[in-house]
Hints:
The structure holds 2 protein chains of 2 kinds. By secondary structure, chain A is an alpha/beta fold. Chain A has helices at 46-53, 76-86, 102-112, 117-130, 146-158, 176-193, 204-207; strands spanning 2-15, 18-31, 35-39, 61-66, 69-70, 87-90, 164-168, 196-201, 212-217, 220-226. Chain B has 15 helices and 12 strands. In chain B, helix 1 (15-28) packs across helix 12 (321-356) and helix 2 packs antiparallel against helix 14 (384-411). In chain B, 43% of the residues are buried. Chains A and B meet through helix 2 and helix 3 of A and helix 1, helix 11, helix 12 and helix 15 of B.
Amino acid sequence: MDAVQLDNVSKTYAIGESQLRALDGVSLTVAQGEFTAIVGPSGSGKTTMLQLMGCLDRPDGGRVQVEGRDVTDLGPDARADLRRDRIGFVFQFFALVPVLDAFENVELPLLLAGIPEAERRSRVDELLEAVGLSDRAHHRPDQLSGGEQQRVAVARALAPRPVLVLADEPTANLDTANGRRIMEIMQGLNQRTGTAFVFATHDPRVVAFATRVVEMRDGKVVGERAGQGASPTGSPT
Amino acid sequence: MSSAEAPEIRGGLAFGPLWRIARRDLGRNRRRSLLSMLAVALGLALLIAFNGLINGVMDDMRDNTIRYDTGHLQLRRPDYDADSLSLRGSELVDDLDARLARLRAMDGVRVASPVLWIRGLMTGAEESVDLRLIGIDPESELHAPFRDALAAGDFLSADDRDGVLIGRRLAEKMGLAPGDKAPLAVVDAEGKLDEGLFTVRGVFDTGLIVYDESVALMSLSKAQAFGQARGRASAIVLLLDRADDAARLAATLDEPGLRALSWLDLNELLGYYLGTVKRFYWLLDAIVMLVVAVVIANTLLMAVFERIREVGILAALGMRGRQILQLFMLEALALGLLGCAVGIGLGLAGVAWLQTVGIDFGEEAMSGAGNLAMGSVMHGRIDLLQVLLLTLWTLAVIGLASLYPAWFAARMEPVDALRQT
């Protein structure tokens, strides 16, 4: 079963009196376990596409399916439940809850999903270890570096064991080393868990990690190719 | 880990985690949270103190009126004209001894004493003062409050034929002291002007302008003779064991030619006045609550605007609109509860101080009190039920005030919230 499928999806934003067509009849399928990069210049529609895949927004036209289920017309609560249980997000701006420490940030989606405490603790510990932050579990975001915050965000995205993780420019605010580390972690988790990752990026070093590259321009998918799927050591797999 | 199995949809966020986030959010801007909490505390404290003060003032007015004037119950002729203090024979109670004996034998009646009210005039060298002359049985416990308020000289005796007691303010106005002669004039039962020269036996100081300035007491027998009342009285005044029995006893005492009036009937005007005062205080309560509501709504709106992107993150993680609403309302409730706890403490302390010490507004300030039995020192009274109601009202107002900011946060589309910088 595919993780997510867009079928002739369109989205238009009103900016003042003018209309901006952010997505224009896009069709795309992401299978489970894929590690897909969406590339393209600013304004090409990458972020809008991720938002529609993640049920953060609704399309003006076309259909969106998550795990084969049509989610196009779901109401706000049903979309919230779907995000909570099946979709993880990693944002450019780290997006941690500032009043919660690393452990609590990762635990939050599990609390929302009503996962019992013992299982929550086990999952959070496991994920913090996977991103190399076991010793920083009780630090708040303002006590963590940018790279560490983004690693917490990756752990949080994986906590509910989603079918799909959407990452919008996940390395844009990080230096090269930390950007690389994030991509290595995401790639490792993709391979270990089978969770599909879709990430939007400008950075060719990030694109190099993808097994599939989708190119966008002016709200349309204009090309697609197999990626290098760079290994954690930097060489293509 | 595997993403293959789809987790069941579960109930959502419990109180504990919501409270954890709310509590820490409040701690994020401590100064603002503290100021908001203080606004609630001071608002509620003010409400409790204001209402406590008005409770005390109302109690004092009612108790003073009962103690110095109306008693719990009065027996009068049905057609007695209390406004003109009529001395017409048909409007006065006769057969006093038999009636008093019967009343005093009744269960629940502590004191029964006849009283004659006469409109009079005290003339001085420079001015004359209208006053109410009250003929009393000096031995009766009914007049203990005047006896207790004696500031100079002696109290009356039953056989005192030329003595009067006057209030301190009247004595000062007329330049009189115990032993001095005071000229009094009344219009008697036959409509003739009678004048007499009386000796000021004593001066009382009740602290109530209405009595200290315009009341003179003399023995009932002398008052009856002076006003040509022929052994009659304006009313028989009763003190009961329990004030609450007044209405019930009044119903049993009505008889042809005699009407029993409870202190509630007799203080209708006072009741009306107290009702007006209460309504004024409700308006004041509403204004204070409105200020509290604005402060809370403002605090929460600022919190929402500062955290729009966080709201988007929470929504992206799967928090439902209802849960986001609960989160912000929980913050408001926490501020409200803490503020109310402090406010109750401050308010009760304020009323306790009013109860024991009171506020002295000074006689001049209270000279406009007219016929109301108000002293210059106002006291408060704690009414715990009222405190509870004011607290619940305050919390309800806070809840309402927080609804809009919380709803604003909850209804935002996650994508719009995430777009905010």
